[in-house]
Amino acid sequence: MKKKPLVGILMGSDNDYDIMVETGRALKQFDIPFEMIVSSAHRTPERTTTFVRQAKTNGIKVLIAGAGAAAHLAGAIAAETTLPVVAVPIDATAMRGLDALLAMVQMPAGIPVATMAIGKAGARNAGIFAAQIIATSDETLALKLEAYKQEMVAGVIKKADALQQRLKDDGLD
Ligand code: RP5
Predict the structure, then answer these.
(1) Which of 83, 113, 116, 168 is most exposed, with the fewest beta carbons within 10 Å of its own?
(2) Which ligand 1 atom is at minimum distance from the Cα of 11?
């Protein structure tokens, strides 16, 4: 049987998918079940509200919103829930994501959203951040995150060693 989703990912348009798939990949890496839907704050406000109001009862622990342009999705979601909301600004206009970033990061006092970087890095980090939130009450997941960090350390050390070798090869050490 399919596991019940712990994370709900909403994106304003199907055109956001190529970015938001990175969130899905990050969650899959940590075996966190998620659901992903297209729902816009502006075009389908009722659909967004209905999904968000049911989320907590349905077992969702974190909501992630990816949107571009005048990106009100994360804020509109946060208005309707006490679940943590993570925002991913998407480059969808001539302003290259800065519009979405400012819309998401400049929430008024009282309605927080955790805003990530613009684009793929932000989408991936949203997944990892959601994993970190869930891991506060899931020791197995916390251990997976610890192992992931250790792998990153090993990867950087390997690259640093390779760089030293290149300096040597180029007679620059
Ligand atoms: C936002 O407007 C969406 O999140 C998308 O990034 C942007 C443009 O949407 P489309 O016109 O490409 O559907 O609501």
Answers:
(1) 168
(2) 4
Q: Tell me which of 13, 38, 98, 118 to substitute to probe ligand 1's pocket, judged by most ligand atoms within 8 Å of the beta carbon.
A: 13
**How far apart, in whole angstroms, are the C-alpha atoms of residue 78 and residue 94?**
27
pTM of the entire predicted model: 0.96
* Tokens found for residue 62: 């974190």
CA 140 to CA 62: how far, in whole Å? 18
136 contacts: CB under 8 Å, gap ≥ 6: 142
d(CA 28, CA 101): 25
* Buried b or exposed e, range 69-93, using 16+ CB within 10 angstroms: bebbbbbbbbebbebbbbbbbbbbe
